[in-house]
Amino acid sequence: MKYKYVAMNARNQKKEGAIEAETQSQAISILREKGLVVQDITEAAGSDTPTSIWQMDVGGDIHTKKIKKKKLLLLFNQLGMMMKAGINLSMSMQIMIDSEKDVAMQKILKEINENLYNGFTLSQAMKNFEGFPGVYISIIEAGEANGRLDSAFQQCALICKKDIALSGKLRSAFTYPIFLIVLVIALVIILCGFVLPTFKDTYGSMGAELPGLTLALMGFSDVLIGYWWLLLIIFAGIGAGFYTLKKNSEEFQMKFAQFQLKIPLIGPIVRQSSLARFCRIMSTLTDAGIPIHKAMALARDAVPNIYVKQEIQYVLEDVQIGVTIHEAMAKHTVFDAILVSMIRVGEESGMLGDSLFKMAELFEEQSDESTQKLTDAMTPIMTVVIGVVVGTVVVAMILPMFGIYDVVGASTQT
Hints:
3 strands
């Protein structure tokens, strides 16, 4: 629902505009959080359908639209450079709007800039869009409070850059093994679905006695050819069941997240990358002056693995009742002893941000090494698997030939 409002800001200036909310009371609450005192608020005519250009987009409502990380990185980098060069925020935003080619992103920037002219802060304007993660909004809010918005943009850009790099490494780590597995499956289908049937007809016409291995593979070939549709249904059902459980069952999600950490070669990558992201964000937020409880909650939400996220939540609950971070972390095995020790040093020396920054760098290096180990290990493993698959099929095709020789020899003697 869209509501038009008239309100006064902290400087006693009159502000008019429109806001999206489910109810009028919710709209008033949102405006109060932005420091506005509502004088008049009414439902906008035709609010059930989008009437403003800011609400319409081929991809849906821009307020719920996701923004790509590369877009965020470009935005923060350019805003940081322009503000460091002495260009004010409104002018910087206008430059970004004029240079933006993506229609949806341009609309988002235009609405933010309009809100800036209406007396909102940048962080308040960004809260209207789900595409801006809470981590970045909190850093910008802290930058507005201490007058260092340019540094806040640079910190956001650094987090975004590291996040993009980490996500890229994870994709590359899992893409190669998946490619090899698909290759093996395709090889099995080709050999058993197309190659073996031609030999089966040949051996059958010659009356050769087939060994057990050949019979087993030919039986598998018959199932593959005759019931491929059933196999597709079974695999589709397994996939749909897994997706449904992963989406709707919290217990399954937690067990699967915990299982990920126990997978050889893959588990260390998942854990190290999760801890690297947590430490990186915690370091930036604490250096920006954000309270430790809020910083930890924001860093927790940025961790992809929900089991690690749950462990961080347990730590946060202990910290909120007065336990030190390193003591709370020491209770959980997911946190390395070196991480606990470094955080203890940071807490005792008052340099927690530096300690977390160093640990983020260490975990990122370890993640790189684990990724390389996975790639190095998968190559010989899958080579052996492919060799075994091909060798088994070849042996299964050659063995009946000895039976053919016996048949031919017996017929020659008679």
